[in-house]
């Protein structure tokens, strides 16, 4: 039914043509009827039917009012000026002019159209009043004020319609912008979640692979001579890989669970697992010491998880790039922030070699010798700190080692990990 009603609606140009025909007939017929039987100073047929021509022109020009609002108004205004300036009989010959004024205000370009309409109305008012200076009877001058008043009302009505259209268009634009913004924010959250998962996967896998690599090397070296040591190394490999698999299941469970159910998904590691991490590092050959101060209040889960990952990545870098050495992990939770410091003493010299021998450069977490240029691991740790509003600094120490220092606010100002 609604489709049928829409199909019966005429196109806009056809509507304007019908309106122009209606106004033209009303202007001509209304003027003739109003002045029938009266003695008038100048009939519509004098000279050469000029009165009829002016009424027809001011009516038919409305057919193109939406396309050329300013020329239509100018044409209708000039026709009115000539018509009343030549003392043609009064009547509804102003209908086309009023429609032209409304169209100029409603479909024009705002300020410029209003200026044109205002100037036009003032000029018309002066011409109408001058032309009616000697009108008889004097009461008929009321029609002049009527034309002036309706002209002002036409402009006011057109401006009101235009303002509402502008407001509606701006509201629609804001709605579209808000929709695009929501989509962009949703994509940003998806990207952030992917980055977080990738970081968790990197930290978990890198640490496990580093431990497994060291223990497999130990196994290969002592398998024949010391089977009990090889058996212990294999047990460490099994435990490390099992823990890595559990953490991977917890991380990737976010991708599998559409209903947000956390059942069967373990919590993310935190500072409570630092001792277990240190034990695994000792099995990999590190002489690791943990200096931890008990916090006065429970740490936020995001801070604890980030701290664990920073320590894990730092220890993994030592295992991967330095080898057996002494490592100190200091955790100092203060009132406002948790301070983390992971320091290693650098690669130990082989028997018979000086530790400062340039042929044995210390390998740092950057993977570039003694250069302080950060690698992907340090970049990831720094990103974790940044997301919580903290800061991280990493670089070589004077003794040939490497130190990672991080500060995590206890009231995170960035995104939760």
Automatic annotation (TrEMBL):
<dbReference type="InterPro" id="IPR055558">
    <property type="entry name" value="DUF7134"/>
</dbReference>
<keyword id="KW-0902">Two-component regulatory system</keyword>
<keyword id="KW-0547">Nucleotide-binding</keyword>
<feature type="domain" description="Histidine kinase/HSP90-like ATPase">
    <location>
        <begin position="306"/>
        <end position="411"/>
    </location>
</feature>
<keyword id="KW-0067">ATP-binding</keyword>
<keyword id="KW-0808">Transferase</keyword>
<dbReference type="GO" id="GO:0005524">
    <property type="term" value="F:ATP binding"/>
</dbReference>
<dbReference type="InterPro" id="IPR050482">
    <property type="entry name" value="Sensor_HK_TwoCompSys"/>
</dbReference>
<dbReference type="GO" id="GO:0046983">
    <property type="term" value="F:protein dimerization activity"/>
</dbReference>
<dbReference type="InterPro" id="IPR036890">
    <property type="entry name" value="HATPase_C_sf"/>
</dbReference>
<dbReference type="Pfam" id="PF23539">
    <property type="entry name" value="DUF7134"/>
</dbReference>
<dbReference type="Pfam" id="PF02518">
    <property type="entry name" value="HATPase_c"/>
</dbReference>
<feature type="domain" description="DUF7134">
    <location>
        <begin position="16"/>
        <end position="165"/>
    </location>
</feature>
<keyword id="KW-0597">Phosphoprotein</keyword>
<feature type="transmembrane region" description="Helical">
    <location>
        <begin position="92"/>
        <end position="107"/>
    </location>
</feature>
<keyword id="KW-0472">Membrane</keyword>
<feature type="region of interest" description="Disordered">
    <location>
        <begin position="390"/>
        <end position="417"/>
    </location>
</feature>
<keyword id="KW-0418">Kinase</keyword>
<protein>
    <recommendedName>
        <fullName>histidine kinase</fullName>
        <ecNumber>2.7.13.3</ecNumber>
    </recommendedName>
</protein>
<feature type="domain" description="Signal transduction histidine kinase subgroup 3 dimerisation and phosphoacceptor">
    <location>
        <begin position="193"/>
        <end position="258"/>
    </location>
</feature>
<keyword id="KW-0812">Transmembrane</keyword>
<feature type="transmembrane region" description="Helical">
    <location>
        <begin position="114"/>
        <end position="133"/>
    </location>
</feature>
<dbReference type="InterPro" id="IPR003594">
    <property type="entry name" value="HATPase_dom"/>
</dbReference>
<feature type="region of interest" description="Disordered">
    <location>
        <begin position="343"/>
        <end position="378"/>
    </location>
</feature>
<dbReference type="GO" id="GO:0016020">
    <property type="term" value="C:membrane"/>
</dbReference>
<feature type="transmembrane region" description="Helical">
    <location>
        <begin position="68"/>
        <end position="86"/>
    </location>
</feature>
<keyword id="KW-1133">Transmembrane helix</keyword>
<dbReference type="Pfam" id="PF07730">
    <property type="entry name" value="HisKA_3"/>
</dbReference>
<dbReference type="GO" id="GO:0000155">
    <property type="term" value="F:phosphorelay sensor kinase activity"/>
</dbReference>
<dbReference type="InterPro" id="IPR011712">
    <property type="entry name" value="Sig_transdc_His_kin_sub3_dim/P"/>
</dbReference>
């Amino acid at each position: 039914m609604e489709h049928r009603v829409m199909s019966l609606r005429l196109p806009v140009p056809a509507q304007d043509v019908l309106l122009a025909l209606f106004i033209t007939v009303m202007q001509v017929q209304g003027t003739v009827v109003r002045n029938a039987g009266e003695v008038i100073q100048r009939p519509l047929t004098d000279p050469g039917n000029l009165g009829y021509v002016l009424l027809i022109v001011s009516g038919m020009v409305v057919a193109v009012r939406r396309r050329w609002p300013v020329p239509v108004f100018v044409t209708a205004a000039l026709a009115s000026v000539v018509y009343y300036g030549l003392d043609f009989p009064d009547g509804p010959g102003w209908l086309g002019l009023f429609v032209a004024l409304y169209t100029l205000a409603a479909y024009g370009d705002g300020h410029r159209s209003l200026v044109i309409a205002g100037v036009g109305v003032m000029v018309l008012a002066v011409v109408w009043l001058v032309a009616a200076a000697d009108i008889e009877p004097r009461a008929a001058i009321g029609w002049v004020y009527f034309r002036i008043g309706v002209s002002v009302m036409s402009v006011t009505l057109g401006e009101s319609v235009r303002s509402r259209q502008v407001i509606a268009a701006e509201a629609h634009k804001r709605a579209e912008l808000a929709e695009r913004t929501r989509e962009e924010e949703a994509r940003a959250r998806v990207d952030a979640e992917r980055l977080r998962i990738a970081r968790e996967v990197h930290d978990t896998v890198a640490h496990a692979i580093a431990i497994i690599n060291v223990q497999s090397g130990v196994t290969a070296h002592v398998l024949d001579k010391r089977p009990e040591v090889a058996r212990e190394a294999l047990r460490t490999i099994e435990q490390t890989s099992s823990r890595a698999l559990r953490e991977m299941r917890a991380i990737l469970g976010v991708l599998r669970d559409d209903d947000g159910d956390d059942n069967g998904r373990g919590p993310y590691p935190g500072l409570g697992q630092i001792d277990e991490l240190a034990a695994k590092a000792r099995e990999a050959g590190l002489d690791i010491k943990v200096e931890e101060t008990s916090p006065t209040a429970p740490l936020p889960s995001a801070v604890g998880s980030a701290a664990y990952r920073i320590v894990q990545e730092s220890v993994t870098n030592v295992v991967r790039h330095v080898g057996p050495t002494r490592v100190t992990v200091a955790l100092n939770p203060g009132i406002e922030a948790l301070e983390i410091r992971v320091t290693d003493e650098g690669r130990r010299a082989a028997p018979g070699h000086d530790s400062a021998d340039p042929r044995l450069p210390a390998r740092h977490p950057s993977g570039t010798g003694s250069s302080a240029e950060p690698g992907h691991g340090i970049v990831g740790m720094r990103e974790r700190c940044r997301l919580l509003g903290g800061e991280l600094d990493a670089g070589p120490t004077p003794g040939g080692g490497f130190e990672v220092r991080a500060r995590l606010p206890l009231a995170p100002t960035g995104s939760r990990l």
